[in-house]
Design a protein that fits this description.
The chain has 91 residues and is mainly α. The chain has one domain. Helices cover 86% and strands 0% of the residues. It is built from two helices and no strands. The radius of gyration is 31 Å and the shape is rod-shaped.
């Protein structure tokens, strides 16, 4: 049986390591493409949901006008008020 010299063994280790790195980069590129595809699909779903929300808000506003109900104030103002009240209590 022929044994490997130290140079041949070192070269085999280096080539094996390079092959592993190339394989890992290939897998990484594949996963990046897949994640990009998932991200694109999520963005499309978000756009559809946003369009539906706008339709619902418009329909709600139309119904409120028809019934003579005043539109509710935005929730952001309520959240800010609650946050201010909590800060005042802490002092």
């Amino acid at each position: 049986m022929v044994g490997l010299t130290i140079e041949q063994a070192t070269l085999a280790i280096i080539i094996g390591t390079l092959a592993a790195v190339v394989f890992c980069l290939r897998v990484l590129v594949f996963l990046e493409r897949r994640i990009a595809s998932i991200d694109t699909n999520i963005e499309a779903v978000v756009r559809r949901i946003e369009a539906e929300e706008l339709k619902i808000e418009a329909e709600t506003a139309r119904i409120e006008r028809a019934l003579g109900i005043k539109a509710k104030k935005k929730a952001k103002k309520k959240v800010k008020r609650k946050a201010k009240k909590k800060k005042k209590r802490r002092k």
